[in-house]
Amino acid sequence: MQKVSRLFKQFRPISYELVLHINRPGRVFSGELTIHGDTPAESDSIKLHSKDLTIESVLVNKIVADFSYNDNDELVLSYPKESNQFVIEINYSGTINDSLHGLYPCYYDHDGVKKELLVTQFESHHAREVLPCIDEPEAKATFDITLETESGVTVLGNMPIKSQKSNKNRLVTRFNTTPIMSSYLLAFVIGELHKKTALTKNGIETNVWATLAQPEDSMDFALDIAVRSTDFFDEYYKTPYPLVKCDHVALPDFGSGAMENWGLITYREATLLAEPNNTSVSSKHYIATVISHELSHQWFGNLVTMKWWNDLWLNESFASLVEYDAIDDLQPDWNVWLDFNSNESIAALRRDSLAGVQAVQTDVNHPDEIGTLFDGAIVYAKGARLMKMMRRLIGDSAFRTGLQVYFEKYKYKNTQANDLWRCLSDASGYDVESLMTPWIRQPGYPVVHLTDQNGEIVLSQERLTSPSTNKPNTLWPITLNSNSTDLPKIFESDTLTIKKSDNNVVRLNIGNDAHFITHYDDSTLKQLIGMVENGVLDPLDRLQLLNEQILLARVGIVSTASLIEMLHAYKNETIEAVWDVISLAAVELRKFVETDTKAELKLRYLSGGLALNMFKKLGWSSKPNEPETDTKLRSLMISMMLYSEDASVIETAIGMFEPSDLSSTDPELRSLVISTKVRHQETDSTIKSLLDQYKTTNSSELKNDITVGLTATKNESTIKLLLESQKDTAMFKTQDTFRWIIYLIRNKYARELTWAWIRDNWPWIKDTFGGDKSYNDFATYSASALVTRKQLKEYRDFFTPLKSDPALTRAVDMGINEITDRVALIERDGDSVRQALLNLE
């Protein structure tokens, strides 16, 4: 693969002054740009990033310069007189398209009238689509932005407005100059918006913005979380929020979940807005963590920024950790650290067990590779887990002190991993770099085999991999976090044998903060399962033990059939986060049974039997003042009962279906109600009604519930309709296509048709999503659902020729490995799983 040059090494911008004239109806813009900068040595040429822009004229130090284009979006400026101090003046123009990056329109309806916003998305390397620049994180500079737009609109930028005037139906808005910042954090939003506003304790103006199609009260929850999260981070980081305002804007069309643009954070509507009576508890909790995640970036990522994309984890891993710190402080009753372990930890452990997975810190040679870095399970979830592991070792006080020094030393600068390690080492006295480098730079994680017999504890470590994978000779410095005083704090050899001084059951990784799993010997595991049944283990330990057995079964260390017996120990479970893992274990068994067989019937029976007691306790409707965790658990119990095909539960769910007014259905249960109606009583009129409401509603929560419901169909004609309609932007937004495809390919009745649609429509997928972070996810999530040798061959035959695309290389290799391992697992454990199910009473 060609390695692109780093343009910052040959030209360092100091400031940008941009006047951008935007013609929204004409879908064009023009710019007058002045760049001040310098070069390390005298030169007669400069390279800038520029993509899909028409350059009309260039002056360099007031001299007309020639310009040409290289590969990799490089604009080459040539001029007759050498210098190392430059003022570059460029006149140019560009087009506005529907790519969801660069400068693009968002579409929505308000009172039956079609409306638009114009917005930007520049991460990771899309600023070059709006202005020639050095589009690299290290190229920090100030930005002085003036926008000329149509009048009668709200215009938002990173900074407060310096001046604004109208002239002949045109509005000219100039913003205050930004601090020194990276180009990917530059942003603006233009359109008809309304807002809710409040001040933080330190007087930071906090605004939540939405289109006029969204009710005002849908912004209240986000505003409260945003203000309190900003206050939390001010105190936690001991570094004041560096700007004077922070806008949070809900966008009708947005490719990412949210984006941390400095002072102007942009979101999907679904990740910011929460209508009081039309939003589930789970959605509110998710919205809260997204807001706190993006706010944490205002320090970690914006104030201090990685030098290059290989250290993206410096931004995302820390944000993915401290978002939970913030929400735990704001809402301790939510028990978000249990959610962290049932969501982030499990996602990280599952993905990181696959052959070919990337390390947290991964080299990047080409811009097309950057999108592949945004692996939520690795750079976000695993990275957060590793930071939590390190924080537990050095202590929270040293961790916070180190961060305070880090921000003070490197504010408005760029860093690499070693810069952070040094600050944390100085604060703690630990050699943090030696501890963390193997975890950050190596993919995968260890399984620690523990044997406790004859008065000795024997430990050994190896990388957790499938039987088909060559096991690398990899060692990690493992923080054991054991309840045994006989064991060391850190285990970094391949084996360890120690005399045992008591008769206690030895446990490892208590608190589940370290990134490894434990394979206990049979005797120890039996004792631990007994402790689950007797209520001795706390919820986190119960959750962790079951998840580790699932992972061990996936790679053949234990039999998958053993999960069936183990699940009975959890029949009296009461904690929602633990039930999440129980449900995952039950779902894990589904791939081993064929549709409408006795084994599948027994699996449905098992699911219902596990959930029945809690279902009876919680019922169908919420109780006054019940914990929100019980509200979340209720929907999971009903889901498990519906899978069991309990006739009375199905009848009740169908009876709750209100085809003409879905917004009146309890949002906690609405997706289940719609799914049940579609799965068991689908009619043409039902499908039409659901699609009509999907098209007309402005509620992203209701849209998602309808998506879940419709994709539960067993009807081939409905499946084909949903697939064929994905290209119809009047029906389905481009930002939502991927969600529809995920839900459909996970539906065993829709899998083959969806998999065929992906292959048949790949040119459209590439044209529509190429360059977007979600592009490689089509390969990733296809692999996650395929289960047969035939499908493995189809996947390999289709995607192997596409591996030359750097955006797909890793995803395709991992996909082939993942399907190969899944097929082998089904063939290896299928008979024993089915027999164990048939043996159930």
Give a verbal description of the structure:
A hairpin with a 2-residue loop joins strand 11 (161-167) and strand 12 (170-175). Helix 7 (376-394) packs antiparallel against helix 10 (432-441) and helix 26 (789-799) packs antiparallel against helix 27. Among the domains are: 7-191, tricorn interacting facor f3 domain (Immunoglobulin-like); 192-299, Neutral Protease Domain 2 (Neutral Protease, domain 2, Orthogonal Bundle); 305-441, Neutral Protease Domain 2 (Neutral Protease, domain 2); 446-514 and 516-530, Sandwich (Immunoglobulin-like). It has 27 helices and 26 strands. The protein is α+β, with helices and mostly antiparallel strands. The relative contact order is 0.06.
Label the CATH architecture of the domain at 7-191.
Answer: Sandwich
Write the CATH homologous superfamily of the domain at 7-191. Answer: tricorn interacting facor f3 domain
The rounded Rg comes to 28 Å
The residue-averaged pLDDT reads 96
Shape: globular
Counting DSSP H or I runs of 4 or more residues, the number of helices is 27
Q: What low-confidence regions span 5 or more consecutive residues with pLDDT below 50?
A: none
**Main beta-sheet strand count, sense and barrel state:** 9 strands, mixed
Q: What are its keywords?
A:
841 residues, alpha+beta, Immunoglobulin-like, Neutral Protease, domain 2, 9-stranded mixed β-sheet, 5-stranded mixed β-sheet, 27 helices, 26 strands, 22% strand, globular
What is this structure's SSE topology?
Layout lengths: L11 E12 L4 E22 L3 E8 L2 E2 L1 E5 L3 E22 L6 E9 L2 E9 L20 E9 L3 E4 L3 E7 L2 E6 L12 E4 L1 E7 L5 E7 L8 H18 L7 E7 L6 E2 L4 E5 L12 H17 L6 E3 L5 H19 L5 H7 L1 H9 L14 H7 L2 H19 L1 H15 L2 E3 L1 H12 L3 H10 L4 E8 L2 E8 L14 E2 L10 E2 L3 E5 L17 E4 L1 H12 L5 H16 L7 H6 L8 H13 L9 H21 L9 H16 L3 H9 L14 H12 L2 H13 L3 H11 L5 H9 L9 H13 L4 H10 L1 H8 L7 H9 L3 H11 L9 H30 L3
Parallel strand pairs: 1-9, 15-16, 16-18, 19-20, 21-26
Antiparallel strand pairs: 1-2, 2-6, 3-4, 3-6, 5-6, 7-8, 8-13, 9-12, 10-13, 11-12, 14-15, 17-18, 21-22, 22-25, 23-24
Helix pairs in contact: 1-2, 1-3, 2-3, 3-7, 4-5, 4-14, 5-7, 7-10, 8-9, 12-14, 14-16, 15-16, 15-27, 17-18, 18-20, 19-20, 22-23, 22-25, 25-27, 26-27
